[in-house]
Specification:
This protein is an alpha/beta fold. Helix content is 38%, strand content 19%. The two termini are 16 Å apart.
Length: 303
């Protein structure tokens, strides 16, 4: 329901909060939406700001399949149930898949890829990171160069899943000098079952879902904890309060490591069967996105 009057607020508040939640945890929330909206788009992605480009479309069914495969791949490579997976990525469909797959197994720690190597290292160590999902070598991007330099300085790190869009699985595994294995993300998840989770885990609303780091304006960035109840409540409330439904189209141009975009271009529309459109990996930092901004909103019928 959209809230438009005091009577709407009173009717809304008469319903117990847990009854309004779209799931008991983020994995449950996405499962419920996928059961209803399986063949509808969950994500769309444009690699450029070209108005004529046909977007890559990820349906709810495909998203849930990939979440299962990601969680199963992390578990198969030694990440513990409840363990932390750090994400150092630009805005790609794989970023969302990795975040929600990590939450199905344990805790996700999205990290700003613009940070310097020492800050990346400190955040991963503070979070007790066991796995890392990171963009591989890409022309014009320094993410892999910065991140690869500190892999052996994260003692708890067990596995690195390197995202290489368009690689077609032809990226050979690597091993750091400290013995951390680096696998191609697509290859690793393709080897896993997509129909469900291959491990037993009961996620309670009070379990930690994510560590989001602060901006570091006073010293080093600090970690803020989100429980599954925090995230499910926020996504459910925003969907109800703003009247979101399966026709909602959210434009994603802010970085997904940021809590604003994590909800507004992620969990909020997913709670109600809507979808997000990621406008290039750079989002609003792409000058062509800004130049074509209103035409892109019109193209996707953004709500």
């Amino acid at each position: 329901m959209a809230i438009r009057s005091l009577a709407d607020i009173e009717a809304f508040e008469a319903i117990p909060v847990e009854t309004r939640w779209r799931g008991t945890n983020t994995y449950d929330l996405i499962c419920k939406s996928a059961a209803i909206f399986a063949d509808r788009p969950a994500l769309k992605y444009q690699t450029t700001a070209d108005l004529d480009e046909a977007p890559r479309i990820v349906t709810y069914r495909a998203l849930l399949d990939a979440i299962h495969q990601t969680a199963n791949a992390l578990r198969a490579t030694g990440v513990s149930i409840g363990g932390v997976t750090a994400i150092v990525m630009p805005n790609l469909p794989e970023t969302g898949v990795a975040m929600w797959g990590a939450q199905a197994l344990g805790i996700v720690a999205p990290i700003n890829p613009l940070l310097e190597p020492d800050a990346l290292r400190d955040i991963m160590n503070e979070a007790e990171t066991e796995a890392l999902v990171v963009e591989g070598p890409v022309a014009g991007s320094d993410i892999w160069g910065k991140t690869s330099a500190i892999l052996d300085d994260v003692p708890g790190l067990k596995i690195v899943l390197q995202v290489n869009p368009g690689s077609k699985g032809d990226v050979a595994p690597q091993t750091t000098s400290a013995g951390v294995q680096i696998l191609d993300f697509d290859t690793a998840i393709a080897a896993q079952r997509k129909e469900g989770l291959d491990f037993d885990r009961t996620i309670t609303p009070d379990d930690i879902a994510a560590y989001f780091h602060t901006g570091g304006t006073t010293g080093r960035p600090k970690l803020a904890r989100h429980s599954h109840a925090n995230q499910v409540h926020t996504a459910s409330f925003m969907s109800d309060f703003l009247g979101y439904d399966e026709n909602t189209v959210a434009i994603g141009g802010l970085p997904l490591f940021h809590v604003n975009s994590f909800f507004n271009a992620g969990l909020n529309p997913l709670a109600c069967g809507g979808h997000s459109v990621y406008l290039t990996s750079a989002g609003f930092r792409d000058r062509n996105v800004i130049a074509n901004f209103w035409k892109l909103l019109e193209k996707y019928k953004a709500t």
